[in-house]
Amino acid sequence: MSDQIEWWRGGVIYQIYPRSFMDANGDGIGDLKGITQKLDYVADLGVDGIWISPFFKSPMKDFGYDVADYREVDPMFGCLNDFKELLDKAHSLNLKVMIDQVWSHSSNEHEWFIESRESANNAKSDWYIWAEAKPDGTPPNNWLSYFGGPAWTWDTKRKQYYLHHFLREQPALNIWNTDVRAELIDTARFWFDMGVDGFRLDAMHQYLADPLLRDNPARTDGSTPSDLPPENPLSMQSRTNSANHAGTIEWLNIIREISDEYQDRALMAEVGGEDAAQVAANYVQASDRFHFAYTFDLFSCSYNKSDMEALFKNTEEVIGTGWLCWSNSNHDVQRVASRWYPGQGNQSDFNYQASILPMSMRGSYCMYQGEELGFKETDVPFEKMQDPYGIEFYPEFKGRDGCRTPMAWDHTEHGGFSAVDADGNLPEPWLPLSQQHIEDNVSWQKEHEGSIYYRMKKYIAWRKKEPAMRTGAVELIESGEENILAFVRSEGDDHIMCVFNFSYEEKIMDQKLLKDGQKLIENISSAVKVEGDQITLMPFAVALFK
Length: 546
Ligand code: BGC
Hints:
- The protein is 26% helix and 17% strand.
- By secondary structure, it is α/β, with parallel strands linked by helices.
- The protein has two domains: 3-106 and 177-460, Glycosidases (TIM Barrel); 474-545, Golgi alpha-mannosidase II (Immunoglobulin-like, Sandwich).
- The strands form four sheets. An eight-stranded parallel barrel has the order 1-2-5-9-10-11-12-13.
- Helix 5 (178-194) runs parallel beside helix 6 (248-260) and helix 7 (276-283) packs parallel to helix 9.
- The longest helix is centred in the middle third of the chain and has 17 residues, at 178-194.
- It is globular.
- The chain starts with 11 loop residues before the first strand and ends with a strand.
- The chain binds beta-D-glucopyranose.
- Beta-D-glucopyranose (BGC) is lined by residues 62, 65, 102, 166, 202-203, 270, 331-332.
């Protein structure tokens, strides 16, 4: 592959949720030193980089997505020196490091907010979105929060409402304000100067909303947004006024200018909300916008041929010169081994297929920790639940604890997630581990060649060396079978045919799908039988030909 290709384009990025990766100090919560200890494992998987979810100072109401100081590490995770060590170790292993930047809102314990709520005329009074109540005392408009209830909370001190698209402890920053922008730019420089390779910009579609605070209209077309469960009443609104204001582009341009002052840095936009694919495409359309966008589209897509084909077509229609990052699991959604698994058929073949498909699509790929091990969603009992989103909508929607439970490194108690504390005691982890995860732990899988970990690792190594898979074009091919998805990835004269059998039935593959001389790539294909000329696709087959 040419050295000219940017590291993030077509790369595989491993997402680390720091609370749940590795607990080096024995308090039941993961930390930066724990991540550093396990970086060899991550590098050994063959990925190009890591994205670490927030580890900044925070009261942890939304587990770090409520930042109280953008340049300090929360003591729970360690200190800035621990982060520098992590960065150095990652770089020595050729891993790029992306960190989360949560700029749509801060914590209500951030000193900016504490000052802002003091009065309507102090230096920071306009750093958040404040508004008068309606004459009857109700909030200024009908906007709803993602996590339940109105997007407005009354502040008794200022006697005004403030906006929060998420928890009331996450007041929305006023990004129209140039002083706020200047602070965020300084924050970006602080991390870039330290050597961080890129940012994942949290909830970008929530950066700027209608300054006139007009109501959102009701959603009338019967569609469901990709980032919300149907139990959430926000899904009944069309967020045309509360999100994704056109002014966001100008702000994107400024952030891009800053990152371009440094070499090889990458900006990845997290885009949800209305019409997420179109918005994502818009944020990455030109060289003065972001490098790539993280899309939620696979989270709402059903696992069948027609939905996947529709997704491919829609993406190719809107993406233009932009670039996407696919993902099938993260710290916000049910794990794919539970979400897409249809309830019958070989789970391991299914897990392999459900990860190889998005890694074969045109784009980069974010692999959430534990996906390489085939982890299913953990069933966390109500009394152990931590996520305020899940507690609010329980039991119909159980929130995000089930995908956030700690990694299982070995078969010992709590999966070897925690070291013993200073007194030699093993702590209870902040969320319980599932038995399945402990059985399918890292050490066991590393010792067994047939394990999902082993198979994924082989695929990642192969994909890295194939320009067609990393950056090539994509073309859907009609397979002639109801539940067989086929597409070709191409770079110049190099064509790789990718065929996925979603059904539980064996199917004989139509040879016409192959170009002359194309052969099955045996060591990374799965659930495929070749007898003479006949190729049989077993349930959940992954068949790759070159
Ligand atoms: C993050 C969530 C978080 C929310 C608010 C999301 O996009 O991934 O975990 O709760 O932003 O910051």
